[in-house]
């Protein structure tokens, strides 16, 4: 099993290649969209590259959950995650810092959950 530092190094290399970044831009607290400029379409490429780098299969929606924030999901009211929505995020994204997000759980801020550290946490939990 790779160490956390080795996982981080591979994640950094993956993000540098996928998003055309410099190594020093990829730090654990960097958000994929806000800080690193990823777009939603990049998430598929990132997941694919991580699958190849770590020789694992990442089922669609497991790394980047889908449809949680839709208005008809029952998890959002008036642009804010409900308690049920927060519980769903905790369940679907145990690798993300949902606790910090609960301070201001606006749908528009959900992208802040997608950090470099979240990727490392996800992989660390998945790898044998």
TrEMBL record:
Pfam families: PP-binding. Residues 5-80 form the Carrier domain. Coiled coil: none annotated. InterPro entries: ACP (IPR003231), ACP-like_sf (IPR036736), PP-bd_ACP (IPR009081), Ppantetheine_attach_site (IPR006162). One of its GO terms (molecular function) is acyl carrier activity. Keywords: Fatty acid biosynthesis, Fatty acid metabolism, Lipid biosynthesis, Lipid metabolism, Phosphopantetheine, Phosphoprotein. One of its GO terms (cellular component) is cytosol. One of its GO terms (biological process) is lipid A biosynthetic process. It comes from the Bacteria. PANTHER family: ACYL CARRIER PROTEIN, CARRIER DOMAIN-CONTAINING PROTEIN. This is Acyl carrier protein. It comes from Gimesia aquarii.
């Amino acid at each position: 099993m790779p160490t956390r530092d080795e996982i981080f190094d591979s994640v950094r290399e993956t993000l540098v290649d996928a998003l055309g970044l410099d190594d020093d831009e990829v730090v654990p607290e960097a958000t994929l969209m806000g800080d690193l400029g990823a777009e939603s379409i990049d998430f598929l490429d990132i997941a694919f590259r991580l699958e190849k780098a770590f020789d694992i299969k990442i089922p669609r929606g497991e790394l980047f959950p889908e449809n949680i924030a839709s208005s008809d999901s029952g998890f959002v009211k008036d642009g804010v995650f409900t308690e049920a929505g927060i519980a769903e995020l905790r369940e679907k994204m145990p690798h993300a810092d949902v606790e910090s997000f609960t301070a201001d759980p606006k749908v528009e801020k959900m992208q802040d959950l997608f950090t470099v550290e979240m990727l490392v946490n996800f992989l660390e939990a998945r790898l044998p």
